[in-house]
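Let us work through a complete example step by step.
Step 1: write down the sequence.
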Amino acid sequence: MAIADRFRNLNWSKPWTLPWLPKLVMIGALPLLVLIAGWGVDWRVQIEELEAAQNQELKLKDEYKSKKMQAVNLDLHREQLREINTTFGALLKQLPNKSQMEALIVEINQAGLGRGLQFDLFKPAPQESMREFYAELPINLKIVGNYHDLGAFATDIGQMSRIVTLNDISLSVSKDGNLLMDTVAKTFRYLDDEEVAMQKRARDDAKKSTKGAGK
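Step 2: predict the structure and record it as tokens.
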């Protein structure tokens, strides 16, 4: 009890006023407290590093699984790519180039005349609509004929070697009692390398203008 009594009612905020025994205890405990505090800090850092390593491990496992699946399906992807290229090539052959467009327009006209139809309007648009890899030219048509011949004409258009679509079709009765088909025939052609490059430059310029306006 005598030793305990020495530690009671001490002013620990002023260690220099303490008796010699409490001073010895404080001096002995101070290095231990420093070691414990340092160990606690180091332990917390190690825990954080461990958690980061575990998260990185999970990420690497996911990447490994993904790459493994890609490697397993590599042959399938290659086959699909070959099929896509083949399909794209076949579609491309159905698109005329710039020099073949006039012949295609004549072919559409001849398809109607060959069915005995009368064109009240055959008006190609003054300008093509440019897309990324192709150009589209609509032709406004007003065609007079009977129901059977108009249907045959539409079938002929669908069976042409070049891609031509009939859009916005409407039927009405003409002045002579026949049917009047009002429609838009859309023709398509692929862009040559120079036109594709021009389209790309136009898109890049548009992106730059958009970014500049957003600043």
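Step 3: interpret the result. The CA atoms of residues 82 and 88 lie 10 Å apart.
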